Amino acid sequence: MTDTPGREPGRDPAEPAEQRLPAVRPPDEVAPVERFTSPPAIRRLEFSPERAAQVVRQSANARWVGFLALVVIILFISLYWFYELGAPAGLTTARQAMEIDAQQVTKVERGYLVYEANCARCHGVDGEGGEGPVLNRQDKLFSHLNEAYIHNVLTVGGRYVCGNPLSKMPIWSDQGNPPGPLNYRQIEELIAFLLATNEKTYIVRDEHLLDPKKDPITGQVLTFTGWRDPNYQPDPGATPYPDCWLDEFGSGASASPGASPGGSPAATPGPDSPTVEISASSSTAFDQSSVTAPADQSFVIHFTNNEASVPHNVELKDASGASLMRGDIITGPAEADYTVDALAAGDYPFVCSVHPNMTGTLTAE
Ligand code: HEC
Ligand SMILES: [Cu+2]
Description:
Layout: H1 17-20, H2 33-36, H3 40-43, H4 49-85, H5 95-118, H6 120-123, H7 138-144, H8 147-156, H9 159-162, H10 184-194, E1 201-203, E2 223-225, E3 275-280, E4 290-293, E5 299-305, E6 311-312, E7 315-317, E8 323-326, E9 330-331, E10 334-340, E11 346-351, E12 359-364
Parallel strand pairs: 3-5, 4-12
Antiparallel strand pairs: 1-2, 5-10, 6-9, 7-8, 7-11, 11-12
Helix pairs in contact: 5-10, 8-10
Bound molecules: heme C and copper (II) ion.
């Protein structure tokens, strides 16, 4: 047996062996360098117009995306900025200011309820005054009735106002001595209400549910406005409101207990002048709602103030409301004689200067 190389299938034995080796391979391809690095055009720093156009297109798209993103971010930031801090030129209010505003409105609306429930019977539904001093006048609201003062009056009581220990005005704050019925929150709400601006309309709300109250007949929501005019300026020469409200009515009015009774000094009535009796035993009304006096003849009003440590007087007015005679204010118990010049026949209203709710009619006949 000859040792001949085995025949491999598909090999032609006639072929010379050299031609069979090495095994035939397709020519090696050059590694496609371009796949891994930049294309030759770029390596050659050659920028074909097509390539340039492509680069421009691609980067333009990317720039657009970036630009839009930036615009969105800037818009968001600026909108949020204005939302938070308020747009310029007063277009919108800062969020915090709005929040504080809303809280202030709530305080005023609650204070209104506290006031109507506790204070209106003496100071009037609209603060116009009555048994207690007027509260809604701009000259008083301008600086006399400031936050600290009201707070003190409500904590110390009416004694704080003129030093009258028998003042009708009780202690309201539960911080007072003895403690009053209102807590610090109600005191704050009262102060907010008393000093509320008259440029705003507030809503009357149910005390417990806090939803708006409606007029039972018209069905309209009930509203109120504050008293204080924020633009009010006192006359340049005006004296500031006195610390004690009674000083507004002239000297001798201060309700120091045991003050000496005083009449009109100029009024020395003749012995035979007719006399009209008027007396006061409370701060809500005179004892007489109507009196008569002779017409066309000077007469005397004999006024008796029976109410201890409370100042009263009689002021006679004509139909237009102008003052005809204003008697000196006396602190009870005290008496005074007021001389009145001759009056034509007719009706003349009289009031107590201190308590506008004390009214009556004098008829001259
Ligand atoms: C019983 C009647 C009465 C009631 C109710 C009353 N007050 Fe008074 N108030 C007075 C009198 C009277 C004075 C004057 C004090 C004095 O000189 O004795 C006064 C004084 C004041 C003053 C000071 C006024 C000034 O001109 O300096 C304020 C403010 C005041 N009251 C607020 C209130 C508030 C708020 C309430 C409700 C919580 C209230 N008062 C309830 C009678 C009352
Ligand atoms: Cu009076």
